[in-house]
Amino acid sequence: MSPQMLAFAELGVENLKNKGRVLKNIDIGMLGAALLVIAQWLLLSFGVGNQKNGIIESNWVKMPMSRFEAGIIVTAIGVPLYYIGIKEVIKSIRVVRRKRQIMDLRFAKIFECSAYASVIGFLFLHTVFVVLPITYKLLYETTLMGADIFTVVESIYYYLAVPFWIYLIISVAGMSISWLYFMWTKRLRCSVLGYICNPLFTCLLGFLLSLIKVPIITDFVAASAALGLVFMFAASISHVVMLPDDRELAKRRARRAARR
User: Fold this and answer.
1) 51 in helix, strand or coil?
2) Please, what's the largest Cα pairwise distance for the chain?
3) What is the mean predicted confidence (pLDDT) over 227-233?
4) Which are the contacts of 208, defined by CB distance < 8 A and separation ≥ 6?
5) From the DSSP assignment, how many helices (H) and strands (E) are in the chain?
6) In this structure, are residues 136 and 153 in contact, taking their beta carbons and an 8 Å threshold?
7) Cα torsion for 107, 109, 110, 112, to the nearest 10°?
8) What's the pTM?
9) DSSP code of 15?
10) Is the Cβ–Cβ distance between 46 and 219 less than 8 Å?
C-alpha cells in the first residue's frame, strides 16, 4: 500500500469497495460526458456570420435538421453513460468526507444532489437547445412574418426559462463549488490542476474566450460546460486511484495480525 493510501487509512477514511469497478464506471461516465460535448458542439456551434438577436441565432436557418437529430441521439446515449460514472464520483466523494466535520457532510450532500440534478439537467438543457431552433426553422418556412416568428420562439423560451436556469445553475455551480471545497480541504487527492477540473471554471473561461468574437473559438467553447465534466471525471480517476481498496486494507490488517 502506498504512503498516500496509508495516510488515508490513518485519517479514518472509509475504504472504497470494488475500486476496479468504480474506475471502470468512471471511464464510462467520462465517455458519456464526451458525448455531451459532441452534442453541444452539434447544437450550439453556429459558424461564421452568425448574428445573435436576443435568444435567436441567425444561422439556425442554415443548420440542417440532421444536426439537431444527431444532437438528440448523441445526448440520448451520453446521458445514461454519464449517470453511470457520476454515481461513482459521488461515492468517491462520500468516502473521503469526515463524518465529524459538518461542512464535509453538507458539501458532500450538495455535490450529490447537484450531480443527480445534472443528469436530468443536461438532458433538459439539450432539449431546449433542440426545441428552439427547430421551432424557428419550421416557422421560418411558413408565411409568418419575422416578428411573429421571434415572438413565438421567445414565448417558448420564457416558459422554459425558469427550470432551464435552475437546472443550469445547480448542475454547474453546485457540483463545482462542492468540488472546490474538497480540493481546498485536501480531501481529494488530485494535483493542483484539480482546481480547474470543474464545469464552473470551464464555463467562465469559455465566456471570456467568447468575447474575442472569433467564430472558431466561439464554436469550440460552446461546449464548455460538458468539457468541465470530462475534466472532472479525469481528476476523479486520479483521486480514486489513491483511495484505499477494501482488499488492500484487509491484506494490511492480516500482516499486522501475523506480526503479533
Assistant:
1) coil
2) 88
3) 96
4) none
5) 10, 2
6) yes
7) 120
8) 0.86
9) P
10) yes
